[in-house]
Amino acid sequence: MTQTPRIAFLASPTDGAQGALTQLVERHGQVDPADADVICALGGDGFMLQTLHRHGSLGKPVYGMKLGAVGFLMNHYREDDPQAGHALLERIANAEPAVLRPLEMIAATESGTSVGSLAYNEVSLLRQTRQAAHMQIDLNGQTRLDELVCDGVMVATPAGSTAYNFSAHGPILPLGSSVIALTPIAAFRPRRWRGALLKADTEVRFRILDPYKRPVSATADSHEVRDVVEVTIRESRDRTVTLLFDPEHNLEERILSEQFVV
User: Fold this and answer.
1) Same structural domain for residues 70 and 124?
2) CA neighbor of 150 nearest in space, from 119, 193, 112
3) In what helix (H) or strand (E) does residue 129 lie, and over which residues does it extend?
């Protein structure tokens, strides 16, 4: 006999997500994320990323349902009605896993501090003032671009390649490709440089060439660090998270479908 999974329900503060939270807890009960077999996140992509940052270290699979503005990382929300064949427990049991490996960012600031953070979508460097950023790009300790003059630049994972990266005209990456995208944002010099595809284990280091006159911030998903002088990014070697998706709309299919939108 299959044991009923223990579910930790988490919800964004919106009225819709809070209403769904109340309904689902009444039907299935509630446990702490540390004691759960599955974490169920109710909200949009921003809340999903927040959930992964807060609870990803627990190693629990996360099943999200869209109750927010954007839901690329979420399943559709449906009323938990067993008679309609849409019972949550059935959906979780039949869900397909997608294993994501985040990026690790280490940012050194003008004040001498070093700040570390994870990014499941992307790490972006952005100019803080009206003046363009000037930065050098090193890959695995070798300088590949002496000076990039731009509004910014980012390193994106496959899961995040359809988000900010795609808006900046970066490539969409298939899940499991072991590739990350290096994408400039409004590059002025070199004018024709459009970025690069890199092996996922590449260490990317950005050195800010004039940090006092042209300050730059670094953001790992939603965690921003201001006034950086050097930022190192690499794929995490020891951290993964597992997202669960309904078979008919899994993450791999969504990423593929994004490449054929006309």
Assistant:
1) no
2) 193
3) none
Is 77 a member of any domain? Answer: yes
- 182 and 122 inside one domain: yes
**Are residues 116 and 212 both part of a single domain?**
yes
pLDDT by residue (tens digit) across 197-247? 999 999 999 999 999 999 999 999 999 999 999 999 999 999 999 999 999
Quote the domain boundaries for residue 213: 103-235
Which long-range CB contacts under 8 A does 12-18 form with residues at least 24 apart? Answer: 12/42, 12/43, 12/44, 12/46, 12/47, 12/67, 12/68, 14/43, 14/67, 14/68, 16/67, 17/42, 17/43, 17/47, 17/67, 17/68
45 is catalytic: yes
What CATH number is given to the structural domain containing 152?
Answer: 2.60.200.30
* Domains: count for the chain: 2
Type and span of the H or E element at 54: helix 45-55
Q: What residue type is 98 in one-letter code?
A: A
32, 45, 138, 146: the catalytic one is 45
| 119 falls within a domain | yes
Determine the pLDDT at residue 242: 96
| Three-state secondary-structure class, residue 2 | coil
CATH assignment at residue 83: 3.40.50.10330
Known binding-site positions for NAD(+): 45-46, 121-122, 151, 159, 162-167, 186
Across 86-90, 151-155, 161-165, 187-191, least confident range:
86-90
60-78: pLDDT as tens digits = 999 999 997 778 899 999 8
Q: Both 140 and 212 in a single domain?
A: yes
